[in-house]
Design brief:
By secondary structure, this protein is α/β, with parallel strands linked by helices. It has two domains: 175 residues, Rossmann fold (3-Layer(aba) Sandwich), CATH 3.40.50.450; 126 residues, 3-Layer(aba) Sandwich (Rossmann fold), CATH 3.40.50.460. The protein is built from 14 helices and 13 strands. The protein is globular. The termini are far apart. The relative contact order is 0.17. Bound molecules: 6-O-phosphono-beta-D-fructofuranose (F6P).
């Protein structure tokens, strides 16, 4: 019996998505004789039943392309804006899965997608996922595809900022993506030789950062590169956020939860332009001129690196192998040179943050990088 497979990409796009679609598609169809359709724009395409047949032609010439040929969205099956209101569309997804006679659905995404995929698995669908995100924050996999490309782009940006910071004797504060995880800022900060690296996992003391820059000036280096993760917080703000998060988690009733959520939203709002604020504060505290560079979505665009193409192809083809073996309810994780299935139940909600004693943190400290703490 020919197996029928659906595939979709969800969440923020990430270099390597097309390589993964191609890897899974070529192995499933060319090697195993399955048939594959691709749903458009993430889970929304599954709700609308919008899909394309992923025959050979579709899969050719996409290995090197950035983005995703299927389109993506941040829509969640259980909370989707539909017909003007937010609704649980899970049952429609289940109906469409069966209407298309699917034997399995491949969901390619980051942390949010793993959680959404688990919900669909719990509705009885045969789900298998692949881990992608430039943030590298999905648990139980060594790495996610997209990270290596973004790391290269952010490192290249820091390299370029060095010469202009040096020429003008300036501080340049460069904001690096990563949501609540600091892998990208830490990796690019180390590879690019940033003088200061600030991470969400290590709340920073502004005085310590200013001291490090002043110390560099005293030793004749009157320029500095500060690599700041978009989720990094100074110690005072970090404790306010932590306190509100705890209140939300331990709320005894709906009102308490709502209040905590509103406080968190307010804190996020106040802190939306923190990189600009940090730059101004450092300018005042050090007497050096400071400029801000926000790398933003540049980090997610363009051609995937060789390492990401390789990883995405390895995981994509392993995914087809697992479908052939009827092995579902898992994410295909990278472990060394292997691709191993890990239960979705263990992956969902398992966010991989930078441990404060991680070897990358130690290495940064050993080369004299300021991490915003004494
Ligand atoms: O999860 C990937 C990511 O690029 C994060 O680093 C960032 O916080 C977020 O997506 C940005 O989301 P959007 O593209 O929806 O603005």
């Amino acid at each position: 019996m020919t197996k029928h497979i659906g595939i979709l990409t969800a969440g923020g796009d990430s270099p390597g998505l097309n390589a993964a679609i191609r890897g899974a598609g070529k192995a499933a169809q060319g090697h195993y004789g399955m048939q594959m359709i691709g749903f458009l724009d993430g889970f929304r395409g599954l709700v609308d039943n919008r899909f394309t047949r992923l025959d050979g032609e579709f899969l050719s010439g996409i290995l090197t392309r950035g983005g995703t040929i299927l389109g993506t969205s941040r829509d969640k099956p259980h909370r989707m804006l539909f017909g003007g209101k937010t609704q649980d569309m899970t049952d429609v997804i289940v109906e469409n899965y069966h209407a298309n006679h699917l034997d399995a659905l491949i969901c390619i995404g980051g942390g949010g997608t793993q959680k959404n995929a688990l919900k669909l698995m719990e509705k009885g669908l045969n789900i298998i996922t692949l881990p992608k995100t430039i943030d590298n924050d999905v648990g139980l996999t060594d790495v996610t595809f997209g990270f290596d490309t973004a790391l290269g782009i952010a490192t290249d940006a820091i390299d370029r900022l060095h010469s202009t910071a040096h020429s003008h004797h300036r501080i340049i504060v460069v904001e690096i993506m990563g949501h609540r995880a600091g892998w990208l800022a830490l990796g690019a900060g180390i590879a690019g030789g940033a003088d200061v690296i600030l991470l969400p996992e290590i709340p920073y003391d502004l005085e310590v950062v200013a001291d490090a820059i002043r110390e560099r000036s005293r030793s004749g280096k009157n320029f500095s590169i500060v690599a700041v993760a978009e989720g990094a917080l100074p110690t005072d703000k970090a404790s306010l956020v932590h306190e509100a998060e705890q209140r939300k988690l331990n709320a005894a009733n709906k009102k308490e939860k709502k209040d905590a959520k509103e406080d968190l939203a307010q804190l996020n709002l106040e802190y939306a332009n923190h990189t600009v604020l940090l730059s101004k504060q450092l300018e005042q505290m050090t007497g050096l001129e400071s400029r801000v560079t926000i790398l933003g979505h540049l980090q997610r665009g363009g051609t995937p690196s060789a390492a990401d193409r390789l990883l995405a192809t390895r995981l994509g083809t392993a995914c087809a192998d697992l479908i052939e073996q009827d092995h579902f309810g898992v994410m295909v994780a990278a472990r060394g040179d292997d691709a191993v299935p890990v239960p979705l139940k263990e992956v969902a909600g398992n966010k991989k943050l930078v441990p404060t004693d991680h070897t990358w943190v130690t290495s940064a400290q050993r080369v004299g990088t300021c991490l915003g703490i004494r």
